[in-house]
Target: Malonate decarboxylase subunit alpha
Amino acid sequence: MTRSKKERLDAVAPMLEGKVLDTRRMVDALHAVLDPHDRVALEGNNQKQADFLSRSLALVDPARVHDLHMVMSCLTRPEHLDIFEAGIATEADFAYAGAQSLRVAQAISDGTLRVGAIHTYLELYARMFLDLAPRVALVAADKADRDGNLYTGANTEETPTVVESTAFRGGIVIAQVNELVDSGELPRVDIPGSWVDLVVRADRPYHLEALFTRDPRKITDVQVLMAMIAIRGVYERHQVTSLNHGIGFDTAAIELLLPTYAESLGLKGKICLDWVLNPHPTLIPAIESGWVRSIMPFGGELGMNDYVNARPDIFPVGPDGTMRSNRMAAQAAGLYATDMFIGSTLQIDAEGNSSTVTDGRISGFGGAPNLGSDPRGRRHSSPAWLNLAECEGARGRKLIVQTVQTYGAKGVPHFVESLDAVEVGRKAGFATTPVMIYGNDITHLVTEEGVAYLYKARDREERRAAVAWAAGATPLGLSRDRSKDEQLRRDGVVASPEDLGVRRVDARRSLLAARSIEDLVEWSGGLYDPPSQFRSW
Amino acid sequence: MTRSKKERLDAVAPMLEGKVLDTRRMVDALHAVLDPHDRVALEGNNQKQADFLSRSLALVDPARVHDLHMVMSCLTRPEHLDIFEAGIATEADFAYAGAQSLRVAQAISDGTLRVGAIHTYLELYARMFLDLAPRVALVAADKADRDGNLYTGANTEETPTVVESTAFRGGIVIAQVNELVDSGELPRVDIPGSWVDLVVRADRPYHLEALFTRDPRKITDVQVLMAMIAIRGVYERHQVTSLNHGIGFDTAAIELLLPTYAESLGLKGKICLDWVLNPHPTLIPAIESGWVRSIMPFGGELGMNDYVNARPDIFPVGPDGTMRSNRMAAQAAGLYATDMFIGSTLQIDAEGNSSTVTDGRISGFGGAPNLGSDPRGRRHSSPAWLNLAECEGARGRKLIVQTVQTYGAKGVPHFVESLDAVEVGRKAGFATTPVMIYGNDITHLVTEEGVAYLYKARDREERRAAVAWAAGATPLGLSRDRSKDEQLRRDGVVASPEDLGVRRVDARRSLLAARSIEDLVEWSGGLYDPPSQFRSW
Model:
């Protein structure tokens, strides 16, 4: 029998001054508030981490607090796994594992971590409003006032969603903040104090991961080639105006070719106007060259705040002059308001199924399954969307593009007969294989061989042939019947760089609008302030 | 060239006391704030209407304010169309038209209303965060304090979404409220004052539509039969635990059979636990009988507040003791967190495409396309979802159920060879036919003939045969090759009441847990306070 919210708040009340908890009493407060088997939301975003609260949670006494059911979008910090090893928590519903993917697989195998399900972000938030409402939420904010009002600014991310789904289900909301200020001293309110029960100043500012920063120095000539292929064979061909770019160097290369290569093709103003995207530093040259009309961000990006705040015409900036992101709204926009998702992957099988689960790692899905899916409820049309319609008058289709080099850095082919995910899923006892994007959802596949227009394949056999064609010199690619290649090209199911008017010899890094982080800083007029690990000067 | 936010606020400043506008200056304030061609969000929810603001907007001088581009979920009040006839507005992006559906069709035909697109709600909200951000938002709240903080309570609906998408894109937010209170006197804050520019006390409380109230007296024996068929042939067979019920008497009948018929089948605790649903009065008996675990509502329902607030174990009730709804979160939950959507329709064609567009009416889509779609990004599994998987290990599928009597009240068949929507869409110049739910998205069709398991059809021909079977004695149904019926039944593609163990003679109104509004009030312990038009006593 778990206690009511009132009983829990009564237990912690002696430690509080109003809603404010002393930093040193954090572990005591968790003991007072938590019951065994509670469903607990712990904010571990893609970027912002409630790390004071997660480190404190790892210090509770497992004899008093145990068997928690964690609901968290990301299992990304070491202590996120420590709590399972200690028995403080035993079950998790999550979306992404990232750096902890190996430990997650191990913990599942050891039986210390029971997986409810691995979700895509929007799916997890959806369930938090219905059957996964948290009893206690542990979140992070930039500032709080003494009434519990929170300022979350550029890194608002998922905080309002986690707080709302908890506060209106009789749950308790605890926020760690970087700074406590007096009433009325917040730049603005992002989350009303009436939804928040406890605020505590963290021992140090919350950890922020520079997840979407890509150093242009590391972009290769092959990635430039693939970016050119994508621009001609996908963006230009379908006149894609609204889109989401997944994380990685492949899409960073595309961003950096807009003001150069794409501009030389006369595409400015015709493609890439509206973006659902974190503030990618590599998009600065395109923004400054007038390519971009609007950006809706999932979160902030370390070092980008001054630049973003100076462009309220592009980013969502509040009356106070600072950005507000919103992970749930951006995921909805990425699902329903964009014509294209393009992202990199690690493995693609003969059917076109793609996954980032490899080598026994369970990395989760993040936003890709949602962003990389055709919303069957969509009813507005656009030229790009209609371009994929099966016939006149029929509904269109979202472009779901996967881009991948045929071989990885260590000579490991990215194309395989069967995904590692099949074996990983079997071992973990999942009901379905942890596929990130299913082959029959993918419409285009881009490799250095060219574009496979999978949506044009007439049947499963032709689809497999197109995947194998894109797989080039990998074993999967070499095993194909090459006598069919010419027919595939004539039918427009595949297109080589030559078919698209892309000259391989032009694919040079010198085409990139910025070739280093310093270049990006210069494009930003000095407003971009890169994190130290990206500074070479 | 439109003015900046600052210029507009400066123009209205002389009329304000802080953020508070005098009720009598509303039209003047709109003249001061609006520019021609502005994109304007006007809150016309399914239920809550910003009617003081819409009536005021209809009074502006079209010489000064004209060609507005309206972004609004519902075109439901007369003045919503008046502004187009007056030239104050010329374009609309919307989701639902309801009572104004005939005038909408007329205005499109006359050329006074240009349709951007007709959306499903979540799709429209998604675009408001990207390419349809409003310059000015006109919304409604229960209460505001003098700092602009808003209390929206049970009818929070879409207000936070509209406000956020405007306030963080340099737009101006104007809220009409029923009551102005002093700072600190709100029950709770639903929307922070830092997002709101102007508040004004409305001339009368906002209009609220009792859209989801269905009088059990009007439920027929045939609807009871269809409800029994649905419970046995769909809910029980697939063990559906999470679901959304569309509006109407068909689903109200199902709700009222849970504590009687379904209970007699031993289904309590096995089906219908978690609901995405407005507070339907007809669900009270199931809630009071312990059938329901949780409900996530899109909005409130007139007369249901006291009952809802007394069940914080079921509904999202805040620390202040009143409910908060959230249309965007509920639509996301309906998309990603439920296993089934079941709703009524008006027309179904031979392919299973369904539409509520008939007789030249353009009624829009509302939430049905979103709720009635299989989210391809879903990655968590459940027994019901896996039950529809094509094979072992493959992903499952959401149940999309349409329920309809073969003939309508006036002897008009609901099954047709071709939807009226085709002609309506053609006349209006739409790029695609305004289909509410596409035939290849529907998994089950329920009529008084039984259940057609469309997801089991092996090809288009078998699918058409199953639709025609369900169409019974309508011309579409009679035109079928009846010699195939037996094979369809043997293959489990269709099932009659007899196949499902439903006795037609048992289908009586007496099975309903409540047979009148009075019965519902009694079930609620006197807490449900029905609107006067539903009172016969």
Chain B touches chain A through 86 residues (CB under 8 Å). Chain B is about 30% helix and 20% strand. The domain at 5-208 of chain B is CATH 3.40.1080.10 (Glutaconate Coenzyme A-transferase). The longest strand of chain B covers residues 136-145.
